Amino acid sequence: MGWVLMDLDKLSFFAMAKKRLAWLTQRQEVLAQNVANADTPGYRSSDLKPFAFEELVRRENMQINMDVTQANHAEGRRKRLRDFAEKTERKPFETAPAGNAVILEEQMSKLNDSFISHKLTTELYVKHLKMIRVAIGKG
């Protein structure tokens, strides 16, 4: 009996879930950097632009890479999509006398939102894996 490997990235749900998790991971890094610099004079907090499905579809359509079907084909330069864009808050709600504009309560709230979204996305990912296992008779 042979094994058949399934590339889950070719299934749209799994590809979207992976991108969502990548966005959440990058957001966690940005928020952690904000917290780490809560006492740095002049530091302004930043965040990622919201994860928007429409923008993700647009980015996927903008990616143009040549297919290489034979070894002597030149694959050209791979176009790499930029990671998720970061934005710095221009008009912070509150600024310390030293110019620091990090509000720890706001950052903690955003970290909690990211945690909940990460947990939900991971649970949906696992649930879909279980559904596939049931569908192929392995669950």
Word description of this protein:
The chain has 139 residues and is mainly alpha-helical. It contains 3 helices and 2 strands. The chain has a two-stranded antiparallel sheet. Helix 1 packs antiparallel against helix 3. The longest helix is centred in the last third of the chain and has 32 residues. The two termini are 18 Å apart.
Topology:
Blueprint: H1 12-36, E1 46-48, H2 53-62, E2 86-88, H3 104-135
Antiparallel strand pairs: 1-2
Summarize this structure as a short list of keywords or feature phrases.
48% helix; 139 residues; mainly alpha; single chain
Which bin fits the share of residues in helices? 40-55%
- Poorly predicted residue ranges: none
For the residues shown, what is the average pLDDT? 82
- The share of residues in extended strands comes to under 5%
Radius of gyration: 21 Å
Order of helices and strands: HEHEH
Report the principal-axis shape: flat
The biggest sheet amounts to:
2 strands, antiparallel
Q: Number of helical segments?
A: 3
Distance between the termini: 18 Å
Report the structural category: mainly alpha
Number of strands: 2
Strand neighbour order, sheet with most strands: 1-2
Briefly say what this structure is.
Helix content is 48%, strand content 4%. The protein is built from three helices and two strands. Helix 1 (12-36) runs antiparallel to helix 3.
